[in-house]
Structures are given as structure tokens and as C-alpha cells.
Amino acid sequence: MCRIVGYIGYNQATPILLNGLGRLEYRGYDSAGVAVFGDKGIVKARSEGKLVNLKKKTESTDVSGTVGIGHTRWATHGEPNETNCHPHSSMNGKFVVVHNGIIENYDVIKKQLLKNGVKFLSETDTEVVPQLLEYYYDGDVLEAIRKVTNELTGSYALGILCADCPDIIFAARKSSPLIVAKGENENFIASDISAILDYTKTYTTLNDGDIVELKKDSVKLFDKDLNEKEINFTVTDLDLSAVMKNGYEHFMLKEINEQPEKVKGLFDSYVSDGKVDIPELEKLSDCLENCEKIYAVACGSAYHTSIAGKYVIEQFSRIGVETDIASEFRYRSPILNEKTPVIIISQSGETADSIAALRMAKEHSAPVIGIVNVVGSTIYRESDCVLYTKAGPEIAVATTKGYATQLMMFYLIALYLAQKKGTLTAQEIAQYCAELETIPEKAERLVKNTAQIEKYSDRYKSSKNFFFIGRNTDYAAAMEASLKVKEISYISSDAYASGELKHGTIALIDKGTPVISFCANKRLFDKAWSNAEEVVARGAEVICVVSQKDEEKIKEGYGKIVLEDICDEFSTMLEVIAMQIFAYYIAKGNGCDIDKPKNLAKSVTVE
Ligand code: AGP
CATH topology for 449-596? Predict the structure, then answer.
């Protein structure tokens, strides 16, 4: 998705903008550009493709100056070519703008401006912003921004330069992330703090409707009606190493390896003496204890954690859980009211469909619990209760530690609810906590000893299609495993509930088709095993993901990935970590761009 950086200070802006855009590169983009205020006014350099192309452009264009804005674009309206690339200018060059989001009413505005003789150059929705600014401008930039933002519908984070104000960057935000950060005699705007950690850790997150006037030594914040607001800066505890590879070949591998420590961190935060205490949920405790149903809504992998969570919450607490893909939830008519808590799960906290689902839930008075990894993100700020997953910045597009920490959070919620409702005894809760406590050390051994998994990645890396099958919590693992393989190695794959395969899909199984059968749930081993045999009978090559306890049951000739024993309810965690490793080595073996898979963006901030 599009990302923004802006700099104003005493140093040259271009290297800082390029560095900042580089730190955000992992989020996915297809063109990039900068605009810098220099002696000759505002000069732009833009190019298709990766930042290295833009860097070359900046070497042959005079983009010197100490005030500038930069952008990486993930095309939505118009091809990813140089003309559509940001920054965009108004017809007479008075305004230059970078934008993240979608201007939903751009067509109406554009038609109106065309009637008034305004000439457009690009196919983008964004271009209406500088054009409309110039149209309304009568010497007061803030007033023009107020008028324009009042007229826009959709989402925007905007960085704005005005040719009449060489020492100011303006910014505005609605529904797309934007922060303002403060340094020594220099200030920044950025889509997120990781872009500028090289320079400062002091920042504030803008709220919807906020408008900013940024000079090198001052920051002024206004609401949508231009009333000045107080600014509360905070200091992030992230350091640069959190957004660097630290010796790992890929961010994904680094993040896979961070999982034991991250899930342990969450466990330690909420469990002591065999009891689970989640103070963040206390204000909803009456509602949670008395509700009959909880909705869990998310996209992609976050949705998959909700499926694993559903099995465990229902089993432990006897509260029904309805899981929904956010983009579907928002367009159906779920029965929502003050008695139906809604859990929104999102690593980034900025996924457009998940935000829309959250807002819909709130409109119907449903209490919202956000499971989120980014402090200050939209879902973090708009949820009634926030469960912060503390995984640290996740750079690889394919989520790993984000998933593991969300899953751990679901396990903790399930135990918390069971404790509140008395559906498990104190002794049972303590036993489950003891099991949970073993996850970090088991996960640590798993991520450090990958040979048994790499062997299969190597053997099957040229396969055209994988099937992942499992039942119950193993099915949740199958869904996430399938997505991991698809997104980073571009190999087609399907996840099926094992028992469902024979209702049609088994027709696709041919000689040599690799089928990964999840059997770590010991209670369902025999069932899972018969489904594995069914596909072998049709020529499939099966790899069973099995716990040590059942390892001996796997017949000669079947592949196997053996996991340390863990109770059935939590087996998804180790299964998925094993499959992250499996997918990683397939992608590596195929020379794929593991951290930045094609067509994907880290956080999907458009519908
Ligand atoms: C998973 O590897 C993907 N990156 C994707 O499915 C992701 O989980 C989804 O887009 C949701 O993102 P979020 O957790 O930031 O809301």
C-alpha cells in the first residue's frame, strides 16, 4: 500500500526521504517519488518500479533542499507508471501532494474541476487533491485544506507542499495512518514510526480530521475546523534493530525465530500462579460472562487465528464464536447489539475492511475488543478494549510472529473466559496454563532444528499444487499453512477439512500430489489418519504433521514432520510454525522475493 514520508529541517531532504521510504519498502509498492523545495521552487523526481530507480532519478535531477515529501505507490487508480506516480501537482504548480488512501468521490470532483477548465495529467484519484487545493486557495493554505478535506470522501493521509510556503509542510489525515515526529530542529511526517527511527523516537499519531502545519522548529495541530489542539508526543520503545534483519537472510526468517520470545512475553504478561488475568477485559467482563455469542472478525491470517480461537473458546468457555472475514461481515446483516462482543484481530491495526467491521459493530452498540500489534493504529484507538500483542514491528509481508501472538492471545482469552464462567475447574485452568508455558521452549527447538522440514520443502518445491488437510484445530492450521505457501512461493494450494475432501475435491488428487495432513490433534488422530490413507489410495504423497506420541503410527513410506507433544487445543501453534518454515524454504528454493511477495502489501488500507 502507499506510504508517505516528509522531512523539514536543516539537512538535505532527499537522502532522508529515500532512507525513510526504504524502511517502509516492505509494505509493497510499484512506483515511488519525492518532491523537494529548493532554490528553483518545488522539484519532483518520480519513477516506476523500485526505489533504486528513484534513487537514480534523484542523481540526475536537482532535488536539493531541506524540505520535502516522498511516497511509495501501490497502484489502485491507473497503471504504475511515472505519470500516475506521486507526488502530484496542481495545474499551475501551486500545490504538490502525496496521498495514501482512496478518494471515493474523486470522479465527481474531477468532473466539476474539468468544467472549470482545470487540466489533469494522471488517472489517479489523488490528483483531485492538489487541483482542488489550488482551486480554493486565496492566500490561506490552512483554509484551503479545510475546504478540501471537508469535501473529500474516502480515506486519506496527505503530505502537502505549497509553492508560497517554502518553510512549511502541511498534512491531514482521515482513516489512513499518519504520524508527526519531532527531532532536534527538524520534524517529520510518516505513515509509521519505522520510517524515521534513524532520526527520532518522539511522535504523535494523528486523529481523523487532524490538520498539521509543520516547520523545522514547530508543529501546530488543528482539528477539521482549524481549532488549534494540544499535541501529546510519546516516545516509542522500538529501536532500529527491530526494523533490521540483524544477520538473518530475510525478515521472515528473523520473525519466525522471534516467535518463542514473543509468545513467552504475552504468556508472562497475563498468567501467574496458574491463573489468567486480563485486566484490559475487566470493563467488559459482565458482557463477556453473560453473552451467548462472540463474533471474531478479521482478514487473511488474522482470520485464521480466529478459527483456531473459535475451537478453543467454545470448548473451554462454552460461549459460541462466529468467525467472519471482515470484507464479508461488513456487507451481511449480522445480529449485533450490546450483548454481542466483537473481537477484531489485526496485526497492523490499519486493515480497511477490519476497520469498517469495527465501526459497523460500534454503530450497533456491540462492544469491540481489538487484538492489535500496532500501538496508536486505528483499530487500537477505536476498540473499546485493546489486547496489544507486543510482537514488535513485523516487516515481512507474510505474517509469522503476528499470527503466533494473536493465537496466544486467543488461548489466553479462552482460559480467561472459562475461569470467569467456571466452565473449567481451577485445576484444569492451571494444567492448561502449564501447557501454554511450554510453547515457547518447544517453539524454540522447532525453529532451531529445521532439517526435518527443509527436506520436504526441497523435495516438493517444484510441485504445482499442495493440499493441506486437517480436522478441528488442525483444520485451522491447514488454512494458515496453505496461505503461507501461496503468498510467498506462488504455488497454488488448498486447505480442506479432512472429512470434506471426499465431497468433491478429492477428484483433484493425482499421482504425486503432495498432501500435508495435520494429525497433531491426538484425539482426532485416527480420523485424520483414515483421510490420509484415502488420498494415498489415489496416488497422493502424504506428509503427516504429527506429535511425538503418535509418530510410531505413521506407516512406512509416508512423510512425517514430528512435533513435540502438546495438548490438542494448542497444537495449531506448533503446526503453523512448522508450516511457516516449510513455506519459507520452498520460497527460498524457488528464488522468490520472500519478504516482499509480488502483488501483495503488508497492510491493506484499501477496501
Ligand atoms: C498474511 O501473511 C498476510 N500478510 C495477510 O493475510 C494479513 O494477515 C491480512 O492482510 C490481515 O492483516 P492485518 O492483521 O494487519 O489486519
Answer: Rossmann fold (3.40.50)
| CA dihedral of residues 191, 192, 194, 196 (deg, nearest 10) | 60
User: How much distance in Å is there from the Cα of 12 to the middle of ligand 1?
Assistant: 36
Kind plus residue range of the DSSP H or E element containing 541: strand 541-547
Q: What is the reported pLDDT for 384?
A: 96
299 CA distance to ligand 1 middle (Å): 6
Phi, psi of 86 (to 5 degrees): -80, 165
Domain spans of the chain, in order of start: 3-241, 245-448, 449-596
pLDDT digit string, tens, across residues 174-214: 988 899 999 999 999 999 888 999 999 999 999 999 999 99
Region at 153 (left for phi over 0; alpha for psi -120 to 50; beta for the rest): beta
- Rounded distance between C-alpha atoms, residue 69 and residue 165, angstroms: 14
State whether residue 530 is helix, strand or coil.
helix
User: What is the second-level CATH architecture of the domain 3-241?
Assistant: 4-Layer Sandwich (3.60)
Residue 33 near residue 89 (C-beta atoms within 8 A): no
| Residue nearest atom 2 in ligand 1 by C-alpha distance | 398
Tell me the three state secondary structure of residue 206. Answer: coil
Q: Check: pTM over 0.90? Answer yes or no.
A: no
115 Cα–ligand 1 center, Å: 42
Q: Which atom of ligand 1 is least distant from the CA of 300?
A: 6
For 526, what's the count of Cα atoms within 13 Å in the CB-facing half-sphere?
1
Are 291 and 318 in contact by the 8 Å Cβ rule? The answer is no
- 338 phi/psi in degrees, rounded to 5: -70, -10
Q: Are strands 492-497 and 465-470 parallel, antiparallel or unpaired?
A: parallel
pLDDT in tens, 413-470: 999 999 999 999 999 999 999 999 999 999 999 999 999 999 999 999 999 999 999 9
Per residue in 102-128, pLDDT (tens digit) is 899 999 999 999 999 999 999 899 999
Whether 3-241 shares its CATH topology with 449-596 is answered no
Cβ neighbours of residue 188 closer than 8 Å, sequence gap 6 or more: 5, 6, 7, 8, 20, 180, 181, 182, 195, 196, 199, 200
Q: Does the pLDDT value for residue 241 go beyond 90?
A: no
Atom of ligand 1 nearest to the CA of 304: 8
Determine the topology of domain 245-448 in CATH. Answer: Rossmann fold (3.40.50)
Supply the angle between the helices 251-270 and 426-448 in degrees, to the nearest 10. Answer: 160
| For the chain, percent of residues with pLDDT exceeding 70 | 99
| 487 within ligand 1 shell (Cβ under 6 A) | yes
Other CB atoms within a 10 A radius of the CB of residue 49 amount to 15
Does ligand 1 lie within 6 Å of residue 155's CB atom?
Answer: no
**Ligand 1 in reach of 100 Cβ (< 6 A):** no
Active site residue 2: yes
* Arithmetic mean of pLDDT over the chain: 93
pLDDT at 151 over 90: yes
Residue 503, all three cell numbers? 465431497
For residue 351, which atom of ligand 1 is closest to its CA? 16
Model confidence at 1, pLDDT cuts 50, 70, 90, reads: low
Residue 602 pLDDT? 72
Q: Assess whether the C-beta atom of 346 lies below 6 angstroms from ligand 1.
A: yes
Question: 83: pLDDT confidence band, cut at 50, 70 and 90?
Answer: confident
